[in-house]
Amino acid sequence: MTKRYIRTFFAIVVVSLVGAALINLVVDPWRVTPEPLSSDAFEPYRDLDSQIRTGKCGFIRSAPSIGVALIGSSRVTNSLDPRNPNWGREDVYNLGGNASYIYENEAIFRYLLQKQSPELVIIGIDPGDLSSTFDTRIIFDFNGSPLGPDQDRIDREIRYLVGISTLEASFETIKRRLTDEVPQYDDRGLRRHRPKRQIDQRAFLAAAIIGESQFEAPQSAGEDTPIRPDKLKRLGGIVETCLQRGIRLVLLIHPQHALSHTRSGEEAMLPFERERRDITYLVDRLNQEKPDAVPAEVWDFGDYHPINCEPLPTEKGGRMQNWDDFNHYTLEVGDLMLARIMGWPIEMEGGEDYGLQLDPANFDAWLEHAKAGNRRYIEGVGKADIEWAQGLSNKEGSE
User: Where exactly are the transmembrane stretches of this chain (predicted)?
Assistant: First the structure.
């Protein structure tokens, strides 16, 4: 009797595992097991859920070809559109992930080159990342994705095939197909911008300012904050690899809203000045070492252009046109940045001079231009917003 129960138990386990494997292979919720059994009918309903790194690696595994890769944090995920019609091609993929900084960006860049042969790679540089100790690999799903440690590779592949988390994602995908629900991420990796919730953006930004005051979270750094050597080495390795392989590399320094790092009474400055300078001079040096290679580029969009100095909404329920918050620009601004980098027609009014390709020859002039813009912002369009933000910080600090 006992043997029969044991046989029955193991038979149930085997049938369950086989059933889970079949479901996961057919649905393939994260596109990481591209097999003949994988059904194209589920493609419009596959999402990344909480497994963003895994899902972005799924694009690398499953895409017939990736000619252009967009890599970076949520700024990239939300606002650099792989389906912008100006690309004129179908092999552009957004491989960005929330809070994906240099450690993770380097990892997905290396993984991309193992599987694909891109012609162009655009990597977003988040101001302050390279000079900080911040490492997000332990926070999200990095270690559970194909980017994780090699010694865990077999365990990960088994999980993708018969794991409970994969099966749950498969059922969610099936549910979206049955209800025709649009997933959060499209099938090129862009996070879809759903209709804006009716929230007071000014109140939302006030809460962000108060939170920064409570936790003393710095939003900018002076010229004396150097890039961490390990991060500089990783960035240099990316540049060197692209120069060796003939890949056009663009390092895109993200913009921030001017109010995020401006207070009256402070000396005019460009946030993370030394970080910007070190990136510019590193890329120039490596380009000169490979004069016959496709040169790497540095584009900086973080000055005090009117787009970055947009006044905060004054009416309840109002929203800024170009900013979701102080650090996340809209899809339209992302389109403008791509247009500037790629030489496409400029569709946004006043965007013809947004950002600049940096090199040692123009860096100091760019710095002075930014500082002059900072002074204009403090004395002009930003004056009321700065006083409002300082009032919030001072009030919170006195409590």
Answer: 9-27
Distance between CA atoms of residues 45 and 200, nearest Å: 32
Determine the structural domain holding residue 261 and report its residue range: 195-398
Distance between CA atoms of residues 261 and 326, nearest Å: 9
Helices (H), 74-152: 74-79, 102-115
Q: How far apart are CA 74 and CA 96, in angstroms?
A: 6
The answer to the question of residue 323 being in a domain is: yes
User: pLDDT per residue over 119-171, tens digit each?
Assistant: 999 999 999 999 998 899 988 899 999 999 988 889 999 999 888 999 999 99
DSSP code per residue over 235-249: HHHHHHHHHHHT-EE
Q: Is residue 346 domain-resident?
A: yes
Domain membership of residue 12 (yes or no) is no
HSE, CB side, 13 Å, CA atoms: give it for residue 317.
Answer: 1
Distances (CA, A) of 64 to 52, 73, 116: 20, 24, 9
Candidates 184, 77, 73, 189; CA nearest to 136 is: 73
Count CB neighbours of 54 within 10 A.
28
In which order are the strands placed within the sheet that holds 120-125?
92-94, 68-71, 120-125, 248-253, 297-300, 356-358
* Packed helices 229-245 and 102-115: angle between N→C axes, nearest 10 degrees: 20
pLDDT digits (tens, 9 = 90+) for 337-359: 999 999 999 999 999 999 999 99
d(CA 26, CA 39): 5
Backbone φ and ψ of 358, nearest 5°: -90, 150
User: DSSP labels for 250-261?
Assistant: EEEE----GGGG
Whether residue 121 lies inside any domain: the answer is no
Determine the angle formed by the axes of helices 273-289 and 363-379, rounding to 10 degrees.
160
Helices (H) and strands (E) in the chain, counts: 12, 6
pLDDT in tens, 111-126: 999 999 999 999 999 9
Q: Distance (Å, rounded) from C-alpha 35 to C-alpha 127?
A: 40
Determine contact, residues 77/101, Cβ cutoff 8 Å.
Answer: no
Structural domains counted in the chain: 1
Query: Contact, 129 vs 72, CB < 8 A?
Result: no
CA gap 180, 173 in Å, rounded:
10
